[in-house]
């Protein structure tokens, strides 16, 4: 089966919903999802033991703090000080807009 992307995601979900056995659905999803872990577009700066997207998902971060994690994690492998400045920029925005971000992303 071809990897899932924005162009074929409808076919992926159509096939997944036609499968009635939960184990087969889980296997199908895992096979397609794991392809994303095997590749990186443009460089190797995210080739680390802990991927930023894993931390972002586990910690349920908003987009601004997600970018802080991303830039801090990659700074030593990509843009150095510039990535730390980008992380700081996102953190400053998150602090300045804390109440609005908290309301939209963390208060349920």
Account of the 3D structure:
The chain has 108 residues and is mostly helical. The chain has 2 domains: 1-39; 52-106, no CATH class. The chain has 6 helices and no strands. Helix 3 (52-59) packs antiparallel against helix 4 and helix 4 packs antiparallel against helix 5. The longest helix is centred in the N-terminal third of the chain and has 16 residues, at 22-37. The protein is extended, with a radius of gyration of 18 Å. The model has no long low-confidence stretch (mean pLDDT 79).
Furnish the topology, listing elements before pairings:
Layout: H1 9-18, H2 22-37, H3 52-59, H4 63-74, H5 81-96, H6 98-106
Helix pairs in contact: 3-4, 4-5
Helical fraction: 55-70%
Overall residue-averaged pLDDT value = 79
Low-confidence stretches: none
Q: Which structural class fits the helix and strand makeup?
A: mainly alpha
Protein traits:
108 residues; mainly alpha; 6 helices; 66% helix; 0% strand; extended
Could you give a quick summary of the protein structure above?
The protein is an all-alpha fold and 108 residues long. The protein has six helices and no strands. The radius of gyration is 18 Å and the shape is extended.
């Amino acid at each position: 089966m071809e990897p899932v992307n924005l162009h074929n995601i409808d076919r992926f979900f159509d096939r997944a919903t036609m499968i009635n056995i939960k184990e087969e659905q889980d296997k199908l999803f895992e096979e397609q999802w794991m392809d994303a872990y095997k590749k990186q577009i443009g460089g190797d700066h995210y080739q680390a033991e802990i991927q930023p997207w894993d931390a972002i998902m586990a910690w349920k971060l908003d987009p601004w703090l997600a970018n802080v994690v991303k830039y801090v994690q990659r700074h030593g492998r990509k843009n150095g000080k510039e990535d730390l400045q980008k992380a700081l920029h996102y953190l400053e925005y998150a602090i300045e807009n804390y109440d609005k971000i908290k309301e939209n992303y963390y208060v349920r």
